[in-house]
Amino acid sequence: MNDFFVTLLLMGALSSGGSLPFWMYSNQFGLMPESSGALAVARMGTEYDSSRALQWRWGASLAANRSLSEAEGPLHPMLDELYTSLKWKSLSLDLGMRRFGLDYYGAGSESLGSLSSTGGHIIWSGNARSMPGYTLNLAPVPVPFTRERVKFFASYGDYRTLDNRSMDGTLVHRTSLGLDIKITERLDFHGVLDHFALWGGKSDKLEMPVTLGNYFRVITASEASENGTRSDQINVIGDQRGSELFRLNWRGNGWKISAQHDIPYDDGSGMGFQNFPDGVNTLWFGFDDKDRWISDLLYEYHYTMYQSGTRHDRQTTDEEKQHLDPSDEYHYNHHIMGGGDNYFNNSEYRSGWTYYGRTIGNPLIVPKGTHAGTWTGREVVLGVENNRLKAHHFAIAGKLFRKAPYKLMLTYSQNYGTYTKPYTGESQWGKDWGTVKETPLHQVYAAFMGEIPGLLRHFTITYGLYADRGQLLPDNFGASIGLRYDLRRK
Description:
Blueprint: E1 4-15, H1 22-25, E2 37-46, E3 54-67, E4 75-88, E5 91-97, E6 132-142, E7 150-160, E8 171-182, E9 187-199, E10 201-202, E11 207-208, H2 212-219, H3 230-234, E12 239-251, E13 255-265, H4 268-271, E14 279-287, E15 296-303, E16 313-315, H5 318-321, H6 329-333, E17 334-336, E18 354-355, E19 358-359, E20 389-400, E21 404-415, E22 441-456, E23 459-470, E24 476-489
Antiparallel strand pairs: 1-2, 1-24, 2-3, 3-4, 4-5, 5-6, 6-7, 7-8, 8-9, 9-12, 10-11, 12-13, 13-14, 14-15, 15-20, 16-17, 18-19, 20-21, 21-22, 22-23, 23-24
C-alpha cells in the first residue's frame, strides 16, 4: 500500500537590509520572497509501494510568498510540484513538475536542505523552481560480464520554461549517463555525464522552430541547419551545457567519506577538459548515526576562473590556411582556441541558465543586477554577472541534545565577474594567462538553521539565523521562524 504524506509549512522571514541574506533565499527551490515577508507551502503525495511489480506515486506542492516591501504586499502563488510517477523494475517515468534529487543531506534530511552549496550538482542545484515535463529514468543495472561490480544508469527528459525570459517558450532537454563501479568492498566510484540544452522559443529578433529536425540536432549536440543562426551553424544548436561529475566513496565501520569533482562545461572545450581545474571539489564525512551532536562535515572549494583560457580564437596563419577549406569562411580565418566559456551565459538565449530569475545551477554564480541591487526575479533576467570565482564552503550538521536537527554553513568567496566585464580592475580577457593581477570582491555568507521537533504531535518549529558581509552584497542580517506539520500514513 502506498504511504501517504502531508506537509504544511508557515514561515516568516525578516532582514535588516532591502533583500534577504544569501543563504536565506538560495537553494530554496525559488520559493522564498526576495525581501522580508512570509512563505506558505503545502505538500502532499504518496510513495512507491515496493510490494507491487508496477508501482505508482503522485505528489503536489503549492506555495505562496508575500514580500513586505511591495505595495500592499501582494500574494504570489506558485505551483511548486505536480507530478505522477510510474515504476517497473529498473525503469521509472516522472510526468509533470517534480524537484530533482540532491545529495549530501545531513541529520535533518531533506527538511533542512543539502549541506552542499550546489546540492552536489553544479548544473542543477535546487536553487530555482521546478519545470513541467517528463523524465525517463533507468536505475543502476548491472553491466554484463562484470559480476555486478559495474552498473549503468541514465535519465532522459524534456521540459518547458514558464517564466518571463528573453526567448519566450524556451524548451529544455536533458540526457544523463552514469556508471557505478564497485572497486572493493569498501571503495566505489560514481561518475555522471549530465547534458542540458535550451532550445526553441521566440524573441523580437530570433526564433527557433520546434521541429523534429531541430530536436534531433539538440539531442545529438549538432550544429544548426542552414536555416539556423550563424552562431548555431558554427557551434551547436541552442544553448548547450552540462557537467562531468566524478565521485569516490569509502565506507568504514559506521561512517562514510566522499570526495567529488564536479566540472561545468558550456562548449566542446569544456567537455574536452580544457577548462581544468575549473569545478566544485567536495569532501564530505558522515556518520551512519544521524543522532550525534555532529553527524556530518562538508568542505567545498569552488574554482571557475580559467574557462578554457583567455582567448576564444585567433587569426589563422598562412601555413594553416593551406590545409583549410576557403569556402568555410569562419574557420578559414579563425583558429579556435576554445577559451572564454562564459558559464551559464549565451549570446542568443540571453536569459542563460536562469529560471524565474534564479540561477539553475551553482547559486554562487549570481544573476545580473545582483551587485548593483537591481536584480528581481519578476523581470527578465539577462544571464549571470559572476561566473569567475573562487570560494570556500564549510558545513556541519547534527542534532542538538541528539534530538533537534541543525545545519551550520559558512561560505567565503572571491568574485571577479566575467572575463569581459570584471567587477573591478583590469580584465584578463585576451591576455596571456597569469599576466594580469585581478582584483575580486570579497564576500562572506553564513547560516544556522534548525528544527525543534516533538513539542506537539506532528508539529515542528523551524528557525534560522543568516548573515552577509562583504563587497558583493550589502551587509545584512536575517532571521526566520516557522511551524511545520508533518503527517505520514500507510
